Amino acid sequence: MTNHKRVVIPIALAASALTAPAFAQSDAERIRLLEQQLQHQAQIMQEQQRALEAMQDELERLKAGQSPALVTSPPPATGSGTSTTTVPIEDLHQPIAVAMPPEETGDEPLGFEIYGFVMADAIYDFKRVDPDWNDTLRVTTIPTADGQYGADGEFVFSVRQSRLGLKGDWDTDAGKVGFILEAELFGTGGDAGQTTPRLRHAWATWKNFGMGQYWSNFMDIDVFPNTIDYWGPTGMVFYRNQQMRYTWPMGEDEFAISLEDPGTALTVGRFRDECSNEVGESCESTLGEEYRAKNELPDLALRYRNNTDWGHWQLAGMARQLGYERRDTGFTDEEYGWGINASSVIRVTELDRLKLQVVYGEGIGNYLNDGGLDLAPRNAERTGNTAETVPLLGIVAYYDHYWNERWSTSIGWSGVELDTTAGQAGTEFEKGQIAQVNLLHYPTDGVLIGGELIWGEREDINGADGDDLRVQMSLKVNFPR
Question: Where in the sequence is the signal peptide annotated (predicted)?
């Protein structure tokens, strides 16, 4: 997005432009809106005419040898103090660019784009999952014991996928700068199960350097398939991380290096249950309160992407120091994690895409979409025990097919498997898989409606397993563009 392509609109006019298509239900209402915009256009033409007359007077004074007078332009009728450009009636459906004060250097006003969508899901779950996650099929939330979350069968409505974002970039004397600020309504962590705003991206760039929260340099977002379930492929590297990154353009290709936040996915293994076997010990003082991550160095990620006439392929590497400590004994130590992620998107036809990814490593579970684990106790002994990295393998294989410009189907499978340790509890996650197929319709630009069949399975270390089947129907409406 460059300055000469942007249309800058005053906030008041942007608000009327956004609401007009949605609420103008009668000819009388449309006439009123047209009259308002004609009046606004007439005001601007009058202001421009006064400015031209003032400049003409100054020109005549200069030719006559008189002292120059200060030429001033009449203030905008809106009182905003910003440069404005009106938008024709037929362009009211275009994206909103909010007016910004002009630079003192005389550059044209800056603008940014508001984007996003409202998405509503209707889901029937033939089984039951953790109620905090019942509006998406996250494999690790599937129960492996009958009745763990109640009797089978549940209907769910959700709007948590809805999203709002701002983005912009512009040229300066010091080079191009840009930003992305984006949030959605899918609460996690302490807000799991709630429809609360959650930050997705807060990313600032200057030339080829960026800092903030954005897709990890270790992942390939283009591998994410054209599906409507929120969580997506279980075995995919999928992580928005806080980081600093530098990217070297290489013609059509690129190489990037990043230092990323070293969050560690750690389990205390069997020791969560040990309190039930020891006389006088409280369950509130298990190893879970004493055994925790201790990170001293950021993660290092390298990525090379090669764009070709048939699509692209990408290779990324990860190196990590995974520290931990025992608060009860004061013992500290660290392990080292590493990973390789190979991915590709192949253009099979003009519209169809084959999306593939294979990731393997040790102690990189925090970067996996679901089920990943970095550190676990080495053995079942509480005294003198240490931690070790957990190896894992993740695979993604999906095919996005477009029947035509208005209909599409995505079908595929993804799985992840962990090489667990002797110190983990039998009820902990060991492997999982998910398969999806859908039929989606695009009745007009910016609108999607369709259904999806989703199946997932979870297996624990002790061999217990559970699966789930659900159907989902969604309506997604993008903000006007």
Answer: 1-24
